[in-house]
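Here is the promised in-class demo. Please do not try to memorize the tokens; focus on the logic of going from shape to residues.
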């Protein structure tokens, strides 16, 4: 049968597997004027003046998130399994494609941190995982808004697992049950809780998908 003839051209292209096949690329989740959406955060490293280059029409909040992410990774390199000497004489570049679209908001910190760790450890991020959340200099994961829209966007994009701040656990009740039942949610308190399900081979990816949620923390 002519499926394309009946349904028209495809509206979604499931590109997460292709995009995240190399270390340093992470699938993030965001809320735009049109609802939830996925965005890819890319990190690279080169010889040069030490510091950080940011591109992709990022607003002030996302720029601060990137600075915090790099500061956290540098100051906690050893516990993250990264050689602290690798930062010497290196410049980092964090890019969020679709440069014509302005992007801002306090929800990309964990995504940027994960991109840097993935790059520096040379471990790709699991293609079925999307994430959202802000991060502090101590590596704590802070709550964000738009959980329902972000989870629905992840589902549309073909993702199977979503990493959320633990304090957003109760917000999953707003997500339709038929979506909750087919997805796994990892509720994160610290960056370690984000990296475990995100990086290939980092341990089991057990999460929450049965309608029960981890309790919120103060």
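The designed amino acids, position by position:
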């Amino acid at each position: 049968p002519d499926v394309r003839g009946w349904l028209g051209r495809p509206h979604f292209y499931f590109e997460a597997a292709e995009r995240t096949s190399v270390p340093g690329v992470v699938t993030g989740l965001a809320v735009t004027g049109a609802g939830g959406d996925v965005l890819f955060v890319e990190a690279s490293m080169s010889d040069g003046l030490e510091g950080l280059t940011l591109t992709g029409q990022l607003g002030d909040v996302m720029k601060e998130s990137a600075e915090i992410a790099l500061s956290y990774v540098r100051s906690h390199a050893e516990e993250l399994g990264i050689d602290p000497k690798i930062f010497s004489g290196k410049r980092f570049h964090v890019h969020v494609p679709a440069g014509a679209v302005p992007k801002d908001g306090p929800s990309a910190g964990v995504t940027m941190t994960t991109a840097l760790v993935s790059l520096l450890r040379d471990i790709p991020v699991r293609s079925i995982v999307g994430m959202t959340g802000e991060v502090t200099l101590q590596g704590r994961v802070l709550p964000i808004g738009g959980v329902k829209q972000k989870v629905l966007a992840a589902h549309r994009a073909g993702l199977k697992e979503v990493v959320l701040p633990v304090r957003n656990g109760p917000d999953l009740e707003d997500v339709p049950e038929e979506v909750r039942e087919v997805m796994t949610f990892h509720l994160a308190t610290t960056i370690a809780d984000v990296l475990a399900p995100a990086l290939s081979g980092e341990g089991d990816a057990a999460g929450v998908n049965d309608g029960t949620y981890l309790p919120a923390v103060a």
